[in-house]
Each structure stands twice: as C-alpha cells, then as structure tokens.
Amino acid sequence: MQMRISDIFKLAFKALRDRKLRSVLTIVGIMIGSAVILALVASSSGLSTGIQAQVGKIGANTLTVSSAGQFFAPGGSSGTQSYKLTQQDVNTIKSFQGVSDVIPYYSQRATISYASNSIQGELIGVDTSALFTMYRGLSLYSGSLPDSYDPSAAAVGYSIAFPTGSSDQLSINQMISTTLGGSTSSSLTFLVKGILSEYGRVLFSNIDETIFISLQSAQILLKTQYFSGLYVITDTPADVTTVQQEIESYYGTQVRVMNAGSMVSTVESITSQMTVFLGSIGGVSLFVAAVGITNTMFVSVMERTREIGILKALGYRPKQIMGMFLSEAILSGVIGGVGGTILGYALSFIIGGALPMFGGFGPPGQTRSSTTFTPVFTPELIAFSLLFPIGVAVLAGLYPAWRASRMNAVVALKYE
After folding, report:
1. Cα Rg for the chain, rounded, in angstroms?
2. Integer Cα distance of 14 and 314 in angstroms
3. Which of 98-102, 201-205, 217-221, 256-260 has the lowest mean pLDDT?
4. CA–CA separation, 293 vs 283, rounded Å?
5. Cβ 25 vs Cβ 296: under 8 Å
6. For residues 55 and 217, what is the distance between their CA atoms, to the nearest angstrom?
7. CA-CA distance, 291 to 385, in Å (whole number)?
C-alpha cells in the first residue's frame, strides 16, 4: 500500500494534537534549546564585531595611561591618587622609542543643559587639533573646532546637538550650560563653535554625548594641572607591546596602561567562555527535549499497538510504519526549530540591549556607561538553528519508530 508524504505528516500532526500536553512540553524544550544557542552565538558575534569596530576607531597602535590609584576627579577636593599625571610625564613618555605622540586629556562627568534638554554626558579637555588623530573618521557636522586659547568655546557631540525625541536643537554660536560631577559641583557655560558628526562609542566614551574644550581651557576651568589620562600613540601597531612594557617598567604600579588590542582579547575570551557555558545549558535543554521525544514516542507506540497491528494486516510495510512514527519526531523538530529560531532572534536583541559593552572599562575620570550591540546572524547560523533541532528529534525518534516497524502483526492485534 502506497502513502503520500503529505498523508504521513497529516497523520503525524493528528497524533501530536491528540497528545497536546506531552507534545507541547516536548516542543517547548526544543524551542528553548534552539533559542538559547542562536541568541548566544548571534550576541557573541555581535559583541565581537562591535569591539573590532570600536578598536578600529582609535587604532590598534593606541595605549591609554592613567593613575593606578583611587579615582581622582579633576577639580575635586577629595580623592587621592598614588600618582598624578603631569606635563613632565607627557615629555617622559614622548622620549620612549616607538612613541609617535602623547595626547593628555582632562575628563569629567557632566550634565549638559540648554533649552528644555538635560543630557548626561562627558566634558573632555584635549588638544582639539588632535581630535581627528585620536578618533579616526571623526569629522565636523558644522562650525569649527574651539580655539586653543578661547576658554568659552566648545565643540559638542551629535546627540547633544540633536537629542532624540526633542524639538529643541543646538546651533552654532548658541550657549550651553554644563554642571560638572565629582565631589564639588560647578556650572560652566560654553559657546558652541562646532558640532561633530555622528560617530558613536569608542571604548571608553560616547563621542556623541561629549563636549570637547581645549586643554588650556580645561586646565583653567577645572583648576588642576593634573591630567585624567594620556593617549599614547605608537609608530606602528607592532610597537604597542614594547612601549607598554617600557611604560610599565618605568612607572611600576603607579600607572595603569591599557592596550586596546589586549582589552579586545580579554573581552572576547570572557564572552567565549560565557557563550560556551550558557550554550551548554541550551544543549542540555535540547538533550532533555530529545529524551522527551523518545519517551513520548515509546508511549505512543504502546498506546497504538493495536493500530500498528491493523496497519500491518492491511499491508503497510515496516518502512511505512517507521516513516509514520518518525514523521512525528520530524514534525516536533520542525515546529521547535522554527519557533526556537524566532524566539532566539528576539532574545538576541534583548541580550544586546541588556548587556553592557565596555561598561566598567576605561581610565578613571571617564564616564563609564553601557551601550548596546547588534547581534550578527549569518545564513549558516540560521540554518543550524533550524536543522539541528530536527536532527536531534530524528535521532531521538529513530529507535521508537524502528521498534514500531518491527512489531509482530499478530501480537499487536492481540494487545489490549
């Protein structure tokens, strides 16, 4: 007797529907396992891609140097450091072989206000002529960079000038007010000379939420000669390790030197370990689902023993009977795989919005906030998410289906 494939799957769907609770629980297990694996791999890939993109903005030949002591806020009256960076340190590090430039900066958390807008951001004092060296691809949207000796001039990030959801926007030569954080709050007013193009986050700072003033202005307004940190640019990426070792050898434990490349390796290592650990949970979920499929199908074979006997008496071949039962497992895998892929897709964006990227990293004195990353989905990953649960379901249902096909027709018909 011949059976069409469509008829086989119709019977399989009816069999699953007749055992709603068991079928739903089994399919949910498959969905959870598939969703967790897809979400973790996509999120891990997205995080890695985001890290690489951010490192590309500052270059692989950039180091950051900051005090290794307790947090010190420029202009604050409290907080001590074991070491404070000065112009002498700039000159010292510049003399090291392999160093192309040393760019000192001041950094302070700030609340930026104008019109009806109040934005939590960062105030950075730096040699404005070096901005485009520090941040590759950064450009002006309009206006010009602040003059080195104009204490009232500032260039602002794109999100400060054009805040999301607000009709009030900044224009050139408009005044803005900043309230500095730290142990002692103070308010400063600046004239907007330039607006930077949209740029995004660069490891330690969100450039779009930053006000840039000249180094001299920051020194006067923040009333301190001690820098928050130094950007050290080497001649080539190959010089980074040598220069880092030389700085650490010279200063010992007084300063903290961070290599963007090593940070990437560290974060990716942590992410990989987390992915393996949590991915194993998804694997366990799929294993439990596989056990559930096997159990469900064994029970189904027992419940349908007389039906198997009747089918054999009508002329159904063992392969057809095996196909009927195996189709139930395949259908469970298909539903679970499709549902898990959809759930995993949504879950990956939730993970991307909830997990901080570089939150907590960065030199003291710089704003430490979190940012989101976009999960990366490849055709191979989607195919794996769809096909792997089906493979697991087929393997789980293979033996019960084989048992059903090998059942003796006479014994089956006598079964009560």
Report:
1. 31
2. 20
3. 201-205
4. 15
5. no
6. 29
7. 19
pTM over 0.70: no
Report whether pLDDT(209) > 50: yes
142-160 residue pLDDT tens: 999 988 878 889 999 999 9
**Residue for token pair 């006479």:** 410
Bridge partners, residue 251, by sequence: none
* Average pLDDT estimate for 81-96: 88
Q: Give me the helices (H) in 355-374, please.
A: none
In degrees, rounded to 5, the angle at the alpha carbon of residue 177 between the alpha carbons of residues 175 and 182 is 155
Number of Cβ atoms within 10 Å of the Cβ of 409 = 15
Q: Structure tokens of 40?
A: 């973790």
**Residues 25 and 293: beta-carbon distance below 8 Å:** no
Domain locations in the chain as residue ranges: 5-55+264-414, 69-253
Q: To the nearest whole percent, how much of the chain has pLDDT over 90? A: 21
First vs last C-alpha separation in the chain: 26
Q: Would you state the structure tokens that stand for residue 388, as one six-digit string?
A: 């792997």
H-state helical runs in 180-317? 215-221, 240-251, 260-303, 305-313
**Which two structure tokens, joined as six digits, stand for 237?**
């990426």
Q: Which residues 6+ apart lie within 8 Å of 152 measured at CB?
A: 189, 190, 191, 217
Residue 171 has pLDDT above 80, yes or no: yes
Give Dmax (Cα) for the chain. Answer: 101
Tens of pLDDT, residues 63-85 = 889 887 544 444 443 344 568 89
Between CA 248 and CA 136 the distance in angstroms is 26
- Read out DSSP for 323-338? HHHHHHHHHHHHHHHH
- Sort 69 into a burial class: Cβ within 10 Å, 0-12 / 13-18 / 19+: middle
**Cβ 74 vs Cβ 108: under 8 Å:** yes
